[in-house]
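Internal QA ticket QA-208
Title: Verify multi-chain structure generation after dependency bump
Assignee: T.L.

Test input:
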Amino acid sequence: MSCEEPTTSPTPENNITVVSSDGKEFLLDLKLTEQSETLARLISNFEYDRTDVKKDPVPLGNITSAQMQKIIEWLQHHRYYPKWEQNDIHYSTSFTFETWVEEYLNIPNNEMFELLNAANYLNIPRLFSTICRIMASRITGKSAEQIRTVLNIKTDVKNDVYTGIPIQEDSSSSEDGMSEISLSPSPPPI
Amino acid sequence: MDAVQVSKPFRILKLPYVALRNIIMHLDQLEVLDFSFISKKCRSIIKSTKFVNFTVKLNMQTARCPFAFVRERKTICEFSTENLKIRNRYMNGGRIALSQYSNEGEGICIECAQIWADYICDIFRADIDTLDLEPNQSVEKMISIAEWLNKRQSSLRCCYFYGTETNSDSLDRFFETADFSIQKLVLQLNQTYKISPLSHKILNVNCLWASSKNWRYPIDWVTVEHILASNCVTLWIEASSFDEGDLNRFIKGWLNGNNPTMEFFHVIVKRLDPDLLFDGIRYEKKDNSLIRNYDCKAVGVQYEFKGGFDIRRSDGRVATLQQETHLQNP
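Actual output:
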């Protein structure tokens, strides 16, 4: 789906300023903020859509300027798209994406991770769902071992299910005692 | 997208649960199964995920796919014996011998099916909804299946037995051992030899669909005594040996208060003499222009009564009888 419309520059009456965690200010068209449930609710609560209300900058402590720039790019592209409706029974297990989306999300894993968290924080359902689908597409068709390798998840199974031999615990595998993720590229024990 | 250099892995387990759940919801059931094998934590994440409604079907027949996931009567995913075989190492410490999986002409062995079913039902937090069984299993196997189901769940929505060979002792022992309730029982027994009437417990169901495709060996393993003593809501019997006398007894039984919960009874029999059928029964013949419909959801049939014969019992309940003639099946 594509909805190409001429873009309009924000004017003081129809925009708000958001401040990223590293202090950079972004002027954001109110129309764009409709895609973010978090921002839309904030604007509604503080009546930022009224011209006579003083629009203080909105601090977004969890979003860096790089992420905000990326998010604004998304919001602008989807400016005229219909409102996103997520229906539980329509979770799709087929993964096709618009070319624009594929290019937009052709980013390293760590950036994808941060972008997904930002989409979750700002509650941008279309972006959130799209990244989740992209991640699901990277898991689909892979065996448990391949998923372990791709996501670098260390097994916490005490005995190797192949041989019944106890697996040596890797003490460096967790950051907080709960995590099984390691950023080191070492492969999981197989 | 594959062009991106993957410098660091995606820290999927560090995501907020809502995001992780959304990713999992985009996987099919086989991928979810694989995800559950990654680690205990992954398994626990899967177990805490509420999946969109589907039901689990276990087929212990000679099936290529012992497990199926069904939504709105459509199979959305199947686990073949081959799928299970290549994942055998995860199951029960890999102690199921590969030879215990499907061999030529044989279905998955009961032990394998039970181990896999327990695991699958555990991670998807679902009971077995539908069970397909061979009616010629040995007595020991039938008892083993019934005892296993007794331990694992209190009810089964649908139980199918179909095949060309039937061991009536095994079926009897299955139903005598079963403590779980069955909503719908389908007995499609096409053996070409006579079998003795089955246990009365086969009628402890909401819906019984019994069929035999062979008129030389019609259903005489469901008797009028079975039916008079049953509390079935829906009874559908194809190729029955019932004659006018049997059905006359059944109708009189209903008029006298038997089968209080029955809503629909359908039976295919040889041509009947209406005088003998209605002997001693008061009825009211309705004009064929009177159309009445009954939606028999249990068997998925919209039934149309054109006219028919109304009978009324003392508590005021009315039933309509209709006889249709199909010359190809007299």
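Spot checks passed. The CA atoms of residues 155 and 181 of chain B lie 5 Å apart.
Status: verified.
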